[in-house]
Amino acid sequence: MNWSFERFILVGIETVNRRAEISPEVSADKLEAYTASLGATPGGADNFRAFIADDVKPWVEANFRTASHDAVMGESLAGLFIVETLLTQPDLFDDWISVSPSLWYDDMKLARQAATMMQPGDERVYVALANEGYRHEEGVERFVDALKASAPEGWKWSFVPLGDSETHGTIYHTAALDAFRMFYGTADREYRPGGDLLGREAEPRTAEEQALLDTECTAQNTIALTPEAARSGRERLFYRCLRLDLGPRPRDSNWVPGGPEAED
Hints:
alpha/beta, 10 helices, 8 strands
């Protein structure tokens, strides 16, 4: 990861039949149709949440040194599971990364009800969308509208549409990298290059530059800028703490990654 993220423990949870295990329940009159469409009987999401809460998280905490700050990430039907968990059991995680969630599910029920289901807290929510179209896109847009209109005061959220460059089958890794940069990116420094790279003798480090290098990076002394701006003003940035604005841009968002609130 090139030392560009905070340290984290990555836990993968494999499903046997994801369409059954992580899908929400549907009403009785829709069950037969959804079972035929999915090739599995839906409705296992509550049990899967209980498995995470009662088995997975306690095992991780018992075997690893954790920081009591937990995130969850998933795409498509797993993205739907993440949104449902955010709305129904928000104490299970702190950060939520939902990639092209299947919010078309059950006549967009979760997207329609999201505004009335959001609970107070300090949740951080990242939503990305591929070139889905149809009710898949409509459901996500409805959820984003709910965030814009009704997200509780403590929530920080961002929506990144990637439909111009990613499909349902390609979006996951792009969105995952973007979300990790947004939530867990750390400050970096621009170092003075050596003589071979410069093509001339390198100047010695000044006392001011050494003082900058000896100072720990914090949200208060970190400069936010784009890679383009860093390249054009490189020499004046040597040894300073930089938070580079990398990757795609959010379309809608209510927070600035790396701002003073990041250290709260």
